[in-house]
C-alpha cells in the first residue's frame, strides 16, 4: 500500500456498502433460466431493457447510421479522427430537442449551454469539481442513490450532508428539513455550496412537486448557493403527476434571467435510463452560467463521449417520428411493468410507496423486521439475498433514516423472471407468517421453486401479461 497514493488507498469509495455487496453476491451466483435457475435474480440494477426492441428496429431501418455512413458514403475516418471536446454540433442539437420533448416542449434548451460527459456519473463529479472545494458540502435529501457517496465525494473531497425526509409525508422535502441540514453542516464547520436533488427520485420513483421546487429555489436564493437537479429519469415518468423540470419553474417571471439564481441552477442528464443505453456512456451538464459551462467543458476532456456514439445517436434522436413513438411506448411499458410488481407484492402483503416514475419501487417491508433496527434490516436483507435469491437494495444503503425500506428494480428483466421473483417473495412471506415450525417446509418449497426456471404458474402469468418486447 505504501506504493499507492492516499487517494488510491483510502476507503471512501463506498464499495463496502450493502448496495455494492449485493451486486457482488449476484455476480457469484447469477440467475439464468436455463443454466442456473436457482441463482440470484438481479433486482438491484436500475436498467431499462423494456424498449430495446424499438432501438434495434430503428437501427435495422437505418443501416447508414449504424454503418457510419452519410448519403451512402463512409465517414468512418472523419469520425475516428474527430476529438473536439465541445462535441458534435448535430448531436448536441438532437439531444436538447429530446430533452425538450420529454418535458412536453414546455421549456427549450440551448446547445451552447450543454456540456457532454461520459455518463451522469462524470457529469455529477464534474459539477462538484466546478462548484465546491474539498471540505465543502452539498445537501442531499434522503433517501438518495448509494452511488453518490462515490460519485460526489471520492475524488473531489466534497462532503454530503443529508436532508432528512421521512415516510410520514411520503419522503417529501420540507422547509424545516432543509434548514436543519444547513444548520447541521454549520455545526460540522462545513461551508454549504449547494443542494443536489434527483428528479424523479432514485430510489423513491417519485417526481418533485411544484411546491418542493419553489421551496428549493427560494432556499438556494436565500443562502446564495447552487442547486443541481439530476433529471436522468425524466423520460421514465409514466403516470400522473407528470414531470416538472426545475428549468420550467425558472421560466416563471420571478426568476428572470437577470436574477443570480438563474445562473446557480444546473441540470444533469443522461441517456442511460430514458433511452436504455448505459453502455454508451452519454451524459450532459446544462447550465445558464457561462463560467460553469466553460470550466465543465475543459474538464470533460477527461471523460469524452466517442464521436461514433455521438454520430449514431444524433441520427436516431433527430428522427422526430421515432423520438415521439419511443417516449410514449417506453412510458406505457414502464407503467405496465411497475403495476406487475406492485400487484405481485400486494398479493404477498407488501406495499410500496406510491410512485409515478423510474425503474424501481420503494418497498415497505417494515412489518417483516424482527425489530425496528438497522441490524434487523440487514438480517432481513441477507435472508432475501441468500435464501430467497433476490438482490434488492436495503434502505440503509440509500441513507434512509427508517429501517425496513428497500429499493426493488423491475425493468431490467423479462416478465417471466419478474413473476418468478414475486413467487419467491410470496413463499418467503408465507413462511415468515407461519412461524418457525414451518421453516423446514418453507425452505424445501423455496428450493423446489428455485430449481425450476419457470413453473406452470409463471408460464401462465407471463403469457397472459407479456409485453411487446417479449413476443
UniProtKB/TrEMBL annotation:
EC number: 4.4.1.14
Residue span(s) of domain Aminotransferase class I/classII large: 41-425
Matches recorded under CDD domains: AAT_like
Keyword Transmembrane helix carried by entry: no
Record GO terms (molecular function): 1-aminocyclopropane-1-carboxylate synthase activity; pyridoxal phosphate binding; transaminase activity
Annotated pathway: Alkene biosynthesis; ethylene biosynthesis via S-adenosyl-L-methionine; ethylene from S-adenosyl-L-methionine: step 1/2
PANTHER family assigned to the protein according to its UniProt record, in alphabetical order: 1-AMINOCYCLOPROPANE-1-CARBOXYLATE SYNTHASE 9, BIFUNCTIONAL ASPARTATE AMINOTRANSFERASE AND GLUTAMATE/ASPARTATE-PREPHENATE AMINOTRANSFERASE-RELATED
Protein name per its UniProtKB record: 1-aminocyclopropane-1-carboxylate synthase
Taxonomic path: Eukaryota, Viridiplantae, Streptophyta, Embryophyta, Tracheophyta
Amino acid at each position: 500500500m505504501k506504493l499507492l497514493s492516499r487517494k488510491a488507498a483510502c476507503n471512501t469509495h463506498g464499495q463496502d456498502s450493502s448496495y455494492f455487496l449485493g451486486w457482488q453476491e449476484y455476480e457469484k451466483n447469477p440467475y439464468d433460466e436455463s443454466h442456473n435457475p436457482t441463482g440470484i435474480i438481479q433486482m438491484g440494477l436500475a436498467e431499462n431493457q423494456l424498449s430495446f426492441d424499438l432501438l434495434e428496429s430503428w437501427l435495422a431501418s437505418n443501416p447508414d447510421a449504424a454503418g457510419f455512413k452519410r448519403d451512402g458514403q463512409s465517414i468512418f475516418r472523419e469520425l475516428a479522427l474527430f476529438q473536439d471536446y465541445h462535441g458534435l454540433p448535430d448531436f448536441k442539437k438532437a439531444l436538447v430537442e429530446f430533452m425538450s420533448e420529454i418535458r412536453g416542449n414546455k421549456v427549450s434548451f440551448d446547445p451552447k449551454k450543454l456540456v457532454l460527459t461520459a455518463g451522469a456519473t462524470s457529469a455529477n463529479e464534474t459539477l462538484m469539481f466546478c462548484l465546491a472545494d474539498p471540505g465543502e458540502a452539498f445537501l442531499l435529501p434522503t433517501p438518495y442513490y448509494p452511488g453518490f457517496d462515490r460519485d460526489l465525494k471520492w475524488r473531489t473531497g466534497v462532503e454530503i450532508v443529508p436532508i432528512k425526509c421521512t415516510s410520514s409525508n411520503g419522503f417529501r422535502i420540507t422547509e424545516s428539513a432543509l434548514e436543519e441540514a444547513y444548520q447541521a453542516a454549520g455545526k460540522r464547520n462545513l461551508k454549504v455550496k449547494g443542494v443536489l436533488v434527483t428528479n424523479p427520485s432514485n430510489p423513491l420513483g417519485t417526481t418533485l412537486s411544484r411546491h418542493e421546487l419553489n421551496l428549493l429555489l427560494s432556499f438556494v436564493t436565500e443562502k446564495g448557493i447552487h442547486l443541481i437537479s439530476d433529471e436522468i429519469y425524466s423520460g421514465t415518468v409514466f403516470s400522473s403527476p407528470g414531470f416538472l423540470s426545475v428549468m420550467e419553474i425558472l421560466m416563471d417571471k420571478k426568476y428572470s434571467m437577470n436574477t443570480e439564481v438563474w445562473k446557480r441552477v444546473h441540470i444533469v442528464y443522461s441517456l442511460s435510463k430514458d433511452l436504455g443505453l448505459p453502455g454508451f456512456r452519454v451524459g450532459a451538464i446544462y447550465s445558464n452560467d457561462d463560467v460553469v459551462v466553460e470550466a465543465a467543458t475543459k474538464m470533460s476532456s477527461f471523460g469524452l463521449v466517442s464521436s461514433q456514439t455521438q454520430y449514431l445517436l444524433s441520427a436516431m434522436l433527430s428522427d422526430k417520428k421515432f423520438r415521439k413513438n419511443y417516449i410514449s411506448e417506453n412510458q406505457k411499458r414502464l407503467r405496465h411493468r411497475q403495476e406487475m410488481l406492485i400487484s405481485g407484492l400486494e398479493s404477498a402483503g407488501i406495499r410500496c410507496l406510491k410512485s409515478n416514475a423510474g425503474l424501481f419501487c420503494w418497498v415497505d417491508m417494515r412489518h417483516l423486521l424482527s425489530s425496528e433496527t438497522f441490524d434487523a434490516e440487514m438480517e432481513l436483507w441477507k435472508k432475501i439475498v441468500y435464501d430467497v435469491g433476490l438482490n434488492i437494495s436495503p434502505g440503509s444503503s440509500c441513507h434512509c433514516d427508517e429501517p425496513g425500506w428497500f429499493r426493488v428494480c423491475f425493468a431490467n428483466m423479462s416478465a417471466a423472471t419478474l413473476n418468478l421473483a414475486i413467487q419467491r417473495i410470496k413463499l418467503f412471506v408465507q413462511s415468515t407468517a407461519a412461524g418457525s415450525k414451518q421453516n423446514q417446509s418453507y425452505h424445501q418449497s423455496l428450493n423446489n421453486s428455485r430449481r425450476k426456471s419457470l413453473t406452470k404458474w409463471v408460464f401462465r402469468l407471463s403469457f397472459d401479461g407479456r409485453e411487446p418486447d417479449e413476443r
